[in-house]
Specification:
With 266 residues, the protein is of the alpha+beta class. Helices cover 41% and strands 27% of the residues. Strands 1-2-3-4-5 form a 5-stranded mixed sheet. The longest helix is centred in the C-terminal third of the chain and has 19 residues, at 246-264.
Length: 266
């Protein structure tokens, strides 16, 4: 028979287990937490936050594979400074694992990674067969790479209002105190809005691990919009800027490519 002490221990274990299973939550130490600017900024951040993709065939195990660093062929300086092939391959390993592909991580290959990458980029069958006979690579069926082919800002649109000219005209034409006051208020109004749109394109390529022959390839392109707006009236200003960043866009492109691979080639 359970006594009171046994019941207390069991309750404590259940409570501890419930705590262990709970998702971590974190506080917000910002002095603006809960304010209107905080709510708007957090809503924008939530829209850009990482979201897992429900890959349609994730219940089916895919072929064992290795992701090799691809190429970044864009000439955009901002993109080239921020991204290298290894960043993109890291996203590829993550998403392919989520889609239930056995992924041999590049970090486990060590110096072999350079040999593997060179063999498949050159289509060297002899070198590929030689490297694939080593260690954990023996079970590999596919070699996958993701290349950035395009990253460019294709459009920008600006509009704004500067009330100084109209405010001065109103005050001059009115010729009285009320008119001057109205003109002063109108003259203090300034608004500006800017929107830019980028196109970023990614190609994925699947190669047979033994022959270096291409099994499949595809191309995905997504738009990235960034914007800013500001308003000032009588010295009171309000502004906002945001949009999805390059990191998020690359990850979303990888997710879109992996969805293609998972749904078409398992």
């Amino acid at each position: 028979m359970l006594n009171k002490s046994h019941f207390c221990v069991a309750a404590a274990l259940c409570f501890a287990g419930g705590q262990a299973l709970a998702q971590p939550t974190f506080g917000n130490p910002s002095p603006n937490a809960g304010s209107s600017t905080s709510q708007q900024a957090n809503a924008a951040a939530d829209a850009a936050a990482y979201k897992e993709v429900d890959y349609v065939n994730k219940g089916k195990r895919g072929p064992a594979l290795v992701v090799i660093p691809g190429e970044v062929k864009s000439n955009n300086a901002s993109f080239m400074q921020k991204f290298g092939p290894n960043n993109i391959a890291d996203f590829g390993e993550l998403e392919l694992s989520q889609a239930n592909f056995p992924v041999l991580e590049r970090s486990n290959l060590g110096p072999l990674l350079n040999e593997v990458s060179l063999a498949y980029n050159l289509g060297d069958q002899q070198a590929a067969r030689k490297t694939m006979q080593m260690g954990k690579l023996k079970t590999t069926q596919w070699v996958v790479k993701f290349d950035i082919l395009k990253a460019e800002q294709i459009a920008e649109n600006k509009k704004g209002f500067d009330g100084r000219a109209i405010g001065g005209l109103m005050g001059m034409l009115a010729g009285n105190t009320a008119g001057y006051a109205a003109g002063h208020v109108t003259g203090s109004v300034q608004t500006q809005e800017t929107t830019g749109v980028w196109l970023i394109g990614m190609r994925y390529k699947i190669m047979d691990a033994n022959t270096t022959e291409q099994v499949a390839q595809g191309y995905k392109e997504l738009k990235m919009e960034v914007g800013a707006q500001a308003t000032s009236v009588m010295g009171v200003s309000q502004g906002a800027k945001g949009g999805v960043g390059l990191d998020t866009m690359v990850q979303r492109l990888v997710q879109t490519a992996v969805w293609d691979i998972d749904s078409k080639y398992k």
